[in-house]
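Retro notes (design track)

What went well: tokenization of the new backbones is finally stable.
What didn't: we kept losing track of which sequence belonged to which structure.
Fix going forward: every design gets posted as structure first, then sequence, in one message. First example under the new rule, 193 residues:
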């Protein structure tokens, strides 16, 4: 294959990659919750993300003496509790509803605290807000989840506390990144600076 055909092939691929949405490869992030230890389950993890296709993993029920529980619910189908929800790429906004029980179901009477935490490096490009409630209308708790790594919540009895993660992806970050990579590759192939 000569250099002209190689350039033509790469530029065609670049066009398809950048302008059809295939330039965005998604993300996968773990949200961890940890409560006070009292001999039973005191930790729970859920996974959120976006990818080329939707996938859901059902949650396993928490043990009877847990001091912390965390799950995900699909706001379009409240009947199923999820441990993992990867949504399909292509929307301008994504919502995951987290259900945190910061007290748990052991026999302790009094306030208990659980902490939800995440690694900002696992979050995709764009903005991540954490709001109380089920949607983008809830009270804003954390305006930028990439600048904070945790939040604590308390209750004196088993109760569901709902938090909505609102994600607005920045698809252009991937486009500019891949464009710079292809330009570097073309320069290497053609020995130009």
């Amino acid at each position: 294959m000569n250099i002209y055909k190689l350039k033509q092939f790469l530029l065609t691929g670049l066009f398809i990659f950048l302008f059809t949405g295939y330039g965005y490869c998604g993300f996968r992030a773990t949200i961890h919750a940890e409560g006070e230890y009292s001999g039973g389950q005191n930790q729970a993890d859920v996974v959120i993300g976006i990818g080329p296709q939707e996938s859901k993993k059902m949650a396993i029920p928490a043990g009877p003496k847990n001091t912390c529980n965390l799950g995900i619910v699909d706001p379009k189908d409240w009947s199923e509790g999820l441990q993992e929800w990867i949504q399909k790429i292509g929307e301008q906004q994504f919502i995951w509803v987290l259900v945190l029980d910061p007290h748990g179901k052991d026999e302790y009477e009094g306030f208990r605290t659980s902490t939800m935490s995440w690694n900002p490096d696992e979050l995709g490009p764009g903005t991540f807000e954490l709001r109380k409630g089920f949607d983008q209308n809830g009270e804003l708790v954390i305006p930028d989840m990439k600048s904070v790594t945790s939040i604590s919540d308390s209750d004196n009895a088993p109760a569901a506390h709902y938090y909505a993660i609102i994600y607005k992806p920045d698809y252009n970050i991937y486009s500019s990144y891949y464009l710079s990579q292809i330009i570097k590759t073309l320069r290497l192939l053609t020995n130009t600076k």
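Added context from the reviewer: The radius of gyration is 21 Å.
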